[in-house]
């Protein structure tokens, strides 16, 4: 008699958002944890989430540039591992704050700082348990034409330009105007 292996449901990055679920604007970023520009963009995103509270939601997708940053892949896996305990955003911010210190042992310490309690965290990292989720993000980024990070999308449309607060908020405002126009014309119909 064979035992049926229990299939664990893995929470994937594409399903992890911060912000109001039904917000009219979805901001998505492809990035990685060792990149300085991504770290700067993370601070901009925090400002945007505060400024547009209720109007935007944010989704971070992994795009590790492993030729330049050898530790970015494992850092992404660590974030996905933390997500399994509902600690993705805590880990996300801890990783950016410690972007120059992302060795496997350090990732274990960072997970504690983020409030992750998984006793198998280090084993999962060493064994690449969440590697597929990071690879899936990378593949989707490539399919969307991402070549460098950070790369932003607003309601699935690529954002071009430097990801500053001014530039991203102008783009978000433009999308919010379009959304408002559509809802007004639907009400008139």
The CATH topology corresponds to Glutaredoxin
Shape: globular
Strand order across the biggest sheet?
1-3-2-4-5
Rg value: 18 Å
CATH level-four homologous superfamily name: Glutaredoxin
Characterise the protein shown here.
The protein is of the alpha+beta class and 189 residues long. It has a single domain, classed as Glutaredoxin, CATH 3.40.30. 48% of the residues lie in helices and 12% in strands. It has helices spanning 36-51, 72-83, 88-97, 104-113, 121-126, 131-143, 165-188; strands at residues 18-19, 25-31, 56-62, 151-154, 157-158. A five-stranded mixed β-sheet has the order 1-3-2-4-5. The longest helix is centred in the last third of the chain and has 24 residues, at 165-188. It is globular and about 60 Å long. The model has no long low-confidence stretch (mean pLDDT 92).
Jot down its keywords.
single chain, 189 residues, alpha+beta, Glutaredoxin, 5-stranded mixed beta sheet, 7 helices
Chain-wise SSE layout:
Elements: E1 18-19, E2 25-31, H1 36-51, E3 56-62, H2 72-83, H3 88-97, H4 104-113, H5 121-126, H6 131-143, E4 151-154, E5 157-158, H7 165-188
Parallel strand pairs: 2-3
Antiparallel strand pairs: 1-3, 2-4, 4-5
Helix pairs in contact: 2-3, 2-4, 3-4
Brief rundown of the structure:
The chain has seven helices and five strands. The protein is of the alpha+beta class and 189 residues long.
């Amino acid at each position: 008699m064979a035992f049926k292996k229990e299939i664990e449901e893995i929470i994937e990055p594409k399903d992890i958002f911060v912000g109001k679920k039904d917000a009219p604007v979805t901001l998505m970023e492809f990035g990685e944890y060792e990149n300085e520009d991504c770290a700067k963009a993370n601070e901009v995103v925090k400002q945007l989430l505060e400024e547009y509270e209720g109007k935007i939601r944010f989704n971070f997708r992994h795009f590790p540039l492993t030729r330049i940053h050898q530790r970015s892949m494992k850092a992404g896996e660590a974030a996905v591992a933390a997500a399994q305990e509902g600690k993705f955003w805590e880990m996300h911010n801890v990783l950016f704050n410690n972007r120059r210190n992302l060795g496997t042992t350090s990732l274990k310490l960072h997970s504690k700082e983020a409030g992750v309690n998984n006793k198998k965290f280090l084993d999962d990292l060493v064994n690449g348990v969440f590697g597929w989720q990071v690879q899936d993000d990378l593949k989707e980024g490539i399919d969307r034409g991402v070549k460098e990070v950070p790369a932003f999308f607003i309601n699935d449309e690529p954002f071009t330009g430097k990801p500053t607060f001014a530039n991203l908020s102008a783009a978000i405002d433009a999308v919010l105007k379009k959304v408002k126009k559509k809802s007004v014309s639907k009400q008139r119909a």
